[in-house]
């Protein structure tokens, strides 16, 4: 996540957390967690250059038996409907932060995409279906932008993307929990062109050739994360993962490396 993306997420977080706090609390279980840390990842998906970025997050949640669970964080809002396990249905909202042509990093600015223009962000909304049988969890999530965007002199329309995911969670000795996850992301032609396409105008302004990817799966990500509970309120998290671009995304002229690694370390406090 870039520095600008972090500030955009924080702005969305403040709005989401306010919604949770403002809701009536009678008969409702609530929680609040703050966390901070650092992550290292490519400056954009497909880039060969890495940069550290801060992790700053707050998660506020409430649960009521008849209404389900509502969670707000820097990644968006999730309303888990009151459906009996092992099945789950949730309404989700998030924010696609977009991408700048000059990406701000802790080391300055990465200008690999100079001439591509800035891709504006957009609020997204969608649905998630899940199947939970401990220690396993499987889910399908789809999100669609709520506004049309223009990029590279062309209309993107409403971008849509989805995730297929599987997770396994198991405890280790010493108050340690491990989560292993496998996620694949699909994008429609608008989403693929937003992040991996090059329009005629962009090709004229850069050294990239014109490229119009089709809809399809764009990546596969494997990740391992550890949570160490120091106390009921204080925890430490660390993790690493690999992301591999596939299909039309891997063939994009913007893609410098198909295989990328990520790593993070953070601490959290739960009230």
3D structure, described in words:
The protein has one domain: monomeric porin ompg (Porin). The chain has four helices and 16 strands. The longest helix is centred in the N-terminal third of the chain and has 20 residues, at 3-22. It is mainly beta and 271 residues long. The chain is globular, with a radius of gyration of 19 Å. Strands 1-2-3-4-5-8-9-12-13-14-15-16 form a twelve-stranded antiparallel beta barrel. Strands 6-7 form a two-stranded antiparallel sheet. Strands 10-11 form a two-stranded antiparallel sheet.
Percent of residues in β-strands: over 45%
Strand tally: 16
What is the second-level CATH architecture? Answer: Beta Barrel
Q: Mean pLDDT, nearest integer?
A: 92
Number of domains: 1
What's the helical proportion of residues? 10-25%
Question: What does the main sheet amount to?
Answer: 12 strands, antiparallel, barrel
Form type: globular
Structural class: mainly beta
Regions with pLDDT < 50 over 5+ consecutive residues? 5-10
Give the CA-CA distance, first to last residue: 26 Å
In CATH, the topology is named Porin
- CATH domain class name: Mainly Beta
Q: What is the N-to-C succession of helices and strands?
A: HEEEEEEEEEEEEEHHEEHE
Radius of gyration: 19 Å
What is the name of the CATH superfamily? Answer: monomeric porin ompg
**Tally of alpha and pi helices:** 4
Q: Looking across the biggest beta sheet, what order are the strands in?
A: 1-2-3-4-5-8-9-12-13-14-15-16
């Amino acid at each position: 996540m870039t520095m600008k993306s972090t500030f955009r997420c924080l702005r969305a977080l403040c709005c989401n957390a306010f919604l949770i706090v403002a809701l009536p609390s009678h008969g409702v279980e609530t929680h609040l967690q703050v966390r901070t840390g650092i992550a290292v990842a490519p400056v954009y998906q497909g880039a060969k250059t890495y940069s550290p970025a801060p992790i700053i997050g707050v998660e506020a949640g409430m649960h009521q038996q008849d209404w389900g669970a509502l969670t707000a964080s820097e990644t968006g809002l999730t309303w888990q409907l009151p459906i009996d396990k092992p099945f789950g249905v949730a309404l989700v909202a998030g924010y696609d932060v977009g991408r700048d042509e000059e990406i701000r990093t802790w080391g300055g600015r990465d200008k690999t995409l100079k001439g591509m223009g800035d891709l504006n962000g957009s609020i997204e909304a969608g649905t998630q279906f899940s199947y939970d049988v401990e220690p396993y969890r499987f889910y399908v999530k789809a999100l669609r932008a709520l506004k049309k965007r223009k990029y590279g002199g062309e209309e993107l329309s409403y971008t849509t993307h989805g995730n297929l995911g599987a997770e396994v969670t198991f405890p280790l000795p010493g108050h340690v929990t491990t989560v292993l996850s496998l996620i694949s992301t699909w994008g429609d032609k608008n989403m693929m062109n937003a992040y991996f396409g090059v329009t005629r105008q962009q090709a004229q302004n850069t050294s990239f050739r014109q490229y119009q990817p089709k809809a399809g799966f764009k990546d596969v990500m494997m990740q391992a994360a550890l949570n160490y509970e120091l106390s009921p309120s204080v925890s430490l998290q660390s993790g690493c993962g690999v992301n591999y671009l596939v299909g039309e995304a891997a063939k994009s002229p913007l893609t410098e490396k198909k295989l990328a690694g990520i790593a993070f370390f953070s601490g959290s406090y739960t009230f």
